[in-house]
Structures are given as structure tokens and as C-alpha cells.
Write a structure and sequence with these properties.
Layout: H1 2-10, E1 17-18, E2 21-22, H2 26-63, H3 79-83, E3 110-111, E4 114-115, E5 122-128, H4 131-141, H5 149-159, H6 162-167, E6 170-173, H7 178-184, H8 188-200, E7 208-210, H9 221-227, E8 232-234, E9 244-252, H10 256-268, E10 272-280
Parallel strand pairs: 5-10, 6-9, 9-10
Antiparallel strand pairs: 1-2, 3-4, 7-8
């Protein structure tokens, strides 16, 4: 078959014969070689495109974008899972700590020892901390899903009253410790604060620096409070502090972190601090 194809190409350009040997003119031979080379490159190009297509399909099968809650493909948080998130209704939440159903009598703010002191003026939280919301937070903070920042910021902004946003002068955030920065490679709340600022047009400012501390997640209420002692300080070089600050964090558990950060701001000269958190443990 190959010999036949070669002969059909060669026959129109036959030169003088030497016995059975065909002598090809030089120009025609070069043209044939160039045509063969071009055809070969086109075959390689088509093969390369096919390999790229197959590779992309295999990568999408192996690492496609999936919902962090249900793992269905195509979105980091699918519509069904977002609608099922346990949102905290503002009208029934405690205005002092953001706990669900604490508007009338909050068990988080009142204990056998009396009312729990809160240095911040109010607290608003977006979601109850359950399996689904925990997956969101952990996937963002420790799972490398940084594209969740705009989604988490939007959920928080939806929970903040317009009056609170309008009355706040600046937006601040609880900074990550140096240990967390080294472990994660980014400050998770700084990124969310940037997104919240974009959504609300409330100017973000860096006010706090974090000192070394232990991870709060495995500590008791008493240990959390002790761990937060001197956990924050004002950044150096701040000429003037805003009068009213909206301070945000990812999770409000006992309030120890937000309490410590608020106390530093108030001691530095801020008149009022309101706090917001994406999730509320209660």
C-alpha cells in the first residue's frame, strides 16, 4: 500500500531512468520532503490536541470543582446546600452575643454567676455552627479552598443589619496568629474582610496585630479566656483610630477572641465596637 502511494506521487515527476532506478529532479524531491514534514507536523498537532482533551477530561474527573458540603460537582457551594444552611434569624437572636433564640433570655449571656460581661456593644452571627457550616469554615481555613472567601463574606453581609453598616466608621478583622499564618499560608479573615469591604463599601483597616497563642478549638471556656490574655495589640504607626468599628471573625464560640480584640481597641481609643461572625457555636 505504501509503495503504491509513493509511486503515484513520484510518477508525474520522473526523470531519466538508469535501469529500473528513477532519478528525481532536486526541486521536486525537496518539495515532497517539505510536504511530508508538514503533514507529519499536522498529525502531531492533532495528536497533541487529542491528548490535551483527554488530559483535561481526566483532570476534571479527578479534581473537578465540587460542593464542600455534598460533593456534587460544578460549584464550591451548591444551591441546595446553601439554602439548607442554618441561618440565624436576627429578630430571635441575642443582640449581645448573636446566639440563636436568645433575644428574650440568652443562656450564653446569663449563667449561675450572673451576666457574662461583653465589651462589644452588639454581636451578629450569620449561621449556626453545624456539620454543614463547619465544612465551609474548615474547607476555607485548612482545606485550601480560598475561593470560598467571597461566599463566606456574602453570607456574613446578608446577616448584618444595614443600620449597623451605616453607623460603623471602619471595618476591622481578627488577625491570624503567626503559627496559623505559617500553617495556612494566608490570613483567612483578612481575605474575607476585603470581600466584605467590597460588598458594603465600608473601608477596611488593619488595626490589630496577633501575638502567639494556642489554637482555640481544643480549649475549654476558661482555657480560651486565659489563652486570649494579651493575644492582641494595636498595630504600630496608627495615627488616628476610628470612632466606631465593626470587628469580624469566622467563628464565635465563647466570645473570648472577640472580647480580647475588642478590649484592645477600646483601650486604644475606639469608642464603640460591634462584632460580626460567620458562625455561632452554642
Amino acid at each position: 500500500m505504501l509503495c503504491g502511494r509513493f509511486w503515484r506521487l513520484v510518477k508525474p515527476f520522473q526523470g531519466e531512468e538508469r535501469g529500473e532506478e528513477v532519478v528525481m529532479p532536486g526541486a521536486h524531491l525537496r518539495a515532497m520532503r517539505e510536504a511530508d514534514a508538514i503533514a507529519g507536523l499536522r498529525r502531531i498537532d492533532r495528536l497533541s490536541l487529542a491528548i490535551d482533551s483527554i488530559s483535561h477530561g481526566l483532570l476534571e474527573l479527578a479534581w473537578s470543582t465540587r460542593c464542600v458540603c455534598c460533593e456534587l460537582p460544578h460549584a464550591l457551594l451548591c444551591r441546595d446546600c446553601e439554602e439548607a444552611l442554618p441561618r440565624i434569624a436576627a429578630e430571635s437572636a441575642c443582640p449581645r452575643c448573636g446566639a440563636p433564640f436568645g433575644a428574650v433570655a440568652c443562656t450564653e449571656c446569663w449563667t449561675a454567676d450572673g451576666q457574662v460581661p461583653r465589651p462589644f456593644a452588639s454581636a451578629r452571627c450569620a449561621l449556626e455552627f453545624n456539620d454543614a457550616s463547619a465544612k465551609l469554615i474548615l474547607a476555607y481555613k485548612d482545606g485550601g479552598e480560598r475561593a470560598l472567601a467571597p461566599i463566606l463574606a456574602r453570607l456574613l453581609v446578608e446577616a448584618l443589619e444595614p443600620e449597623l453598616l451605616e453607623s460603623s466608621d471602619r471595618l476591622a478583622y481578627v488577625p491570624a496568629s503567626s503559627q496559623a499564618l505559617r500553617r495556612r499560608g494566608f490570613d483567612h479573615m483578612e481575605r474575607i474582610a476585603c470581600e466584605v469591604s467590597t460588598l458594603t463599601r465600608l473601608e477596611r483597616v488593619d488595626l490589630l496585630a496577633a501575638n502567639s497563642r494556642f489554637d482555640q478549638r481544643e480549649l475549654s471556656r476558661e482555657e480560651r479566656a486565659e489563652n486570649m490574655a494579651e493575644a492582641f495589640e494595636l498595630l504600630e504607626g496608627i495615627d488616628e483610630l476610628p470612632r466606631r468599628v465593626l470587628l469580624i471573625d469566622d467563628v464565635f464560640t465563647t466570645g473570648a477572641t472577640l472580647t480580647a480584640a475588642t478590649e484592645v481597641l477600646l483601650a486604644g481609643g475606639v469608642e464603640r465596637v460591634d462584632v460580626g461572625a460567620i458562625c455561632r457555636v452554642w
